[in-house]
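lol ok so funny story. i was supposed to be doing the assay writeup but got distracted and ended up predicting the structure for this chain instead. priorities right. anyway since i did it might as well share w the group, maybe its usefull for someone
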Amino acid sequence: MLIFLPLCTAGWYFCAKRGMPRLGTLFLLALSLWFYAANDVRGLIVLLVSAVVNWLIGRRLTQSPKKPLLVLGLILNLGTLGVLKYTNFVLENVSNLTGTTIGPVSLLLPLGISFFTFQQVAYLVDAYQGNAERYTLDEYALFVSFFPYVTSGPIAFHSEIIPQLRDPKRRTLDWENIARGVTLVSYGLAKKVLLADTLGKAVSAAWTDVSSLSTSTALVAMLSYTFQLYFDFSGYCDIATGAARMIGLDLPRNFDSPYRSCSITAFWKTWHMTMTRFFTRYLYIPLGGSRRGFVRTCINTLVVFLVSGLWHGASWTFIIWGGLHGLALTLSKIRDRYTDKRLPRPLGWFITFLFVNIAWVFFRAPSLTAALTFLSKFFSGWTRLPYTLYSCFMTTELKVVNQVLRLQSETLGLTATVFFLVLSLVLCLMPRNALDRTLGERFQPSGIQLAVSSILLVWAILSFTGVSTFLYFNF
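and the output, tada:
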């Protein structure tokens, strides 16, 4: 990152200054493809073929919007995603139903296929509806493969990205954009390395042997995963948004402090916002949205969240997770239909946060049995946290501090556990999050801001302990 990102930024502005914007697009495209290949070289072929085929279909749709051509494009996109991502899930369930043994098939699952498939589905639908312009192949390919979001989102639309690529003002070097971008990258990297990865160690330790958990260990593991997932995914989005801003481009916002939400409806307005936007525009509304009566609205909501769960992964645990959220939103709609009374904000927050935590158990669990076993452990009684769990929070920095404090190992571990969980909650509830601080009008580049960003960036880089991927790379 220390080489790749400055190279992208310098090359982009150099081409613009030399009056070669097309070369700048090709340069950024080449580096984006290299970035993708470095993570998944075999999937690069799928990405390229997908981009070219969709570009050809999209251009034809802008000229002659024929429904059979749109259907063909949707079948190619969703069919490819379905075959590569869900074949083994189907085979496993057929085996269970029939009592036969059908072995898993070895299939290539390209990195980020769920994300770039949805982006291109949106493009084809917009082209059919007359809401897309004609793009050159290099513009479209860059939109699909743009390195900040190609692997894990946010899910950007062609109408948001390509007009920016064409705007000459976006190719003018702006040092404030550089400052905002670097600051946001440093915040995102700190979220990922300093917080999410530490919390993730505790999560992995707890899920290694679910049957041995107690109430206290299950609680720590559940909270740890809730915070890990947020800091990991929002951290990635901060890095992506910051990297794009350094090049002069704006990405759609994906998070807005979701754990501050006091209702499940508010949560889904602030969590993975671009996914919610996609499903609303391209599934919920085509199903009829809220225009065909209250019962149909509830059914449409359930369908959208069941599909959302399946989109995340080929497992019943993801489908149940989506179903739980769909059911919660449906119950919220029913309540709103018959009363306008609202719970007190503290109580509303607690119930929402508790529900989200419980639902995340299914999202994390390797199987339905493991999820139910995990939840049953909340009734198994309180015990002292084991060393295998609290030691995950004993970072190198805390061990150095303990050279002065000289606490016992267990005391240090318990203190570290409480510290990380409380710090995570405080950061999640802060009135201004990373995006508000860096992209808002109140942002002012200063020596203090530079120092904070530099410290976080260096600290995060020095804290790398091995290869650590972002959680949403799996989806």
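The first helix runs from residue 4 to 17. The chain has a mean pLDDT of 91.
back to the writeup now i swear
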